[in-house]
Specification:
Elements: H1 10-25, H2 27-35, H3 67-73, H4 82-89, H5 104-109, H6 123-129, H7 135-150, H8 156-166, H9 176-182, H10 190-198, H11 201-214, H12 220-232
Helix pairs in contact: 1-10, 1-11, 2-11, 2-12, 3-8, 11-12
């Protein structure tokens, strides 16, 4: 077991403990395999398994938000309202935003496509790609402002999942299960805590081994999301219709 960094939050320590227990028993890979398992009728048991783009298949609209991206959120149990679809069709994503000087699509284009979160843990790279003031952080804040102004109803969960559709290797999913594991209900510290977590050698190696052993090719941050969700999804609050968010 790796030593936990002295400055790690209680949430990071909690998630480390959960993951290391799963890795020691080999259940990390089992949970990933179960998530992507195909049912007898040929469909994937969990709709979220259809969220991930096949390896080697690039997003043809990687620098543009599309209706397909919004539809994809429903695979992760967060369907969107008509307001954002209306505004996307009306061209709002190409209009310059107040306080940002750029459109949402132009901000998206500044976020690198092939950078992985787990390769951005050192100070210089993390500051460049994920820290406050980085392109990804600016895009997050722009989406939040647009959501408030246009009544989209996009909080941390929907924003994180929309960004994960466009930059799945770099930008992690945040939802109620992940938040509860880390001990908070908002994503303000999530990227920093995730960085601290992946700096623990046993955690990053365990995630990478689980991915390899499962036969999948997802990123470390997607593996973390899946493993936590599969292991803990029954422990936390659900919507009235029973779905998790």
């Amino acid at each position: 077991m790796s030593t936990t960094p002295t400055n790690a939050s209680t949430g990071v320590q909690n998630v480390q403990s959960i993951l290391e227990g799963l890795f020691e028993s080999g259940r990390g890979a089992d949970l990933i395999r179960a998530y992507f398992r195909v049912a007898e009728n040929g469909t994937k048991k969990f709709t979220g398994a259809a969220f991930d783009r096949p390896s080697g298949v690039p997003d043809p609209q990687a620098d543009f938000f599309t209706e397909s991206d919004l539809l994809g959120l429903s695979l992760l149990s967060v369907p969107v309202g008509g307001e954002i679809v209306r505004d996307l069709r009306a061209g709002l994503f190409d209009e310059e935003l107040r306080d940002f000087g750029h459109s949402l699509n132009s901000l998206l284009a500044t976020v690198p496509k092939n950078v992985r979160f787990e390769n951005s843990l050192d100070d210089e790279t993390f500051t460049l790609h994920l820290a406050q003031g980085s392109p990804a952080d600016t895009l997050w804040k722009a989406l939040r402002q647009a959501s408030i102004q246009q009544s989209w109803g996009f909080g941390d969960t929907r924003i994180s999942k929309l960004l994960a559709t466009k930059r799945p290797k770099l930008l992690p999913i945040f939802d109620s299960v992940v938040g509860a594991a880390f001990g908070y209900d908002h994503a303000a510290e999530h990227w920093n805590d995730l960085r601290a977590l992946l700096q623990i050698e046993s955690v990053l190696e365990g995630l990478q081994t689980s991915v390899s052993d499962s036969g999948s090719d997802i990123s470390a941050i997607r593996a973390l999301d899946i493993i936590l969700w599969m292991e803990l999804k029954g422990n936390y609050a659900q919507r009235a219709d029973g779905t998790l968010y």
